[in-house]
Amino acid sequence: MPEMPEVEGLARFLRERTVGRALEAVEVGAISALKTFAPAPAELVGRQIFDVARHGKWLDVVTTGDGEPLHLVFHLARAGWLRWYEEVPRTAVRPGRSPIALRVRLDDGAGFDLTEAGTRKRLAVHVVPRPEAVEAVATLGVEPAELTVDRLRELLAARNQQVKGLLRDQSVIAGIGNAYSDEILHAARISPFALTRSFDEETVARLHRAVEEVLRSAVEQASGKPAAELKDSKRRSMRVHGRTGQPCPVCGDTVREVSFADSSLQYCPTCQTEGKILADRRMSKLLR
What we know:
The chain is α+β, with helices and mostly antiparallel strands. The protein has helices at about 5-20, 135-140, 150-160, 165-170, 180-190, 200-220, 230-235, 270, 280-285, and strands spanning about 25-30, 50-55, 60-65, 70-75, 80-85, 100-105, 110-115, 125-130, 255-260, 265. β9 (about 255-260) and β10 form a beta hairpin. The longest helix has 22 residues, at about 200-220. The protein starts with a helix and ends with a helix. Belongs to the FPG family.
């Protein structure tokens, strides 16, 4: 799933190429992806792109025209992506016949498709007068760039929970998902299952520093890259996430994994859990 650094990279990529252009066509390829019906996507046609913004993991194409602005707000979910064209194919999008959920064509011939692979369709597209009309956007937590040490301390103390879950909770901190929470906790040398109310001042400061450094580095790496290169760039930058069985780049220990029903996390026992191997949650359930 694209997380804040990749979505920020996509926002910058689109901003450079689309601001000032008019929308020539908007074609829906997957009705299931369209979460709003009024205004209709067709009402975006003829409007000019004013900006491309990011809210957590959501992208927001801001358009102007007659009356109030209209926002094309979308979330790529786990298997979605944005495919950019310097020249959009002229063939019509055939609903149900391809992975294309939405196609946007600009007045200079360029544009993009929103695509989604697999059978579990979660990509979400909204056409709204303001981004906060999307509940998931309205309820987003603090952006990482605005997260102070004091604010992080408050969030950790609000409820005693595993820190991995807190970092991934979009209503608490916007934009961090499974991959970067693994990377942040590895950089901070904290177990993913550590309880948030157990953190002392030094641990809070260490976690805050890791959030800043990991995400800043990832955003810098994503910035300026074509959309087609962002996924591979993210994979190459990971130290522990997605690297089960490989050596930790810090200490050389073997990166371990904990599997859940539909996801997994990776960590280094030496760096994060004082050498303790965490139980695989799927196997633990089977043994009960």
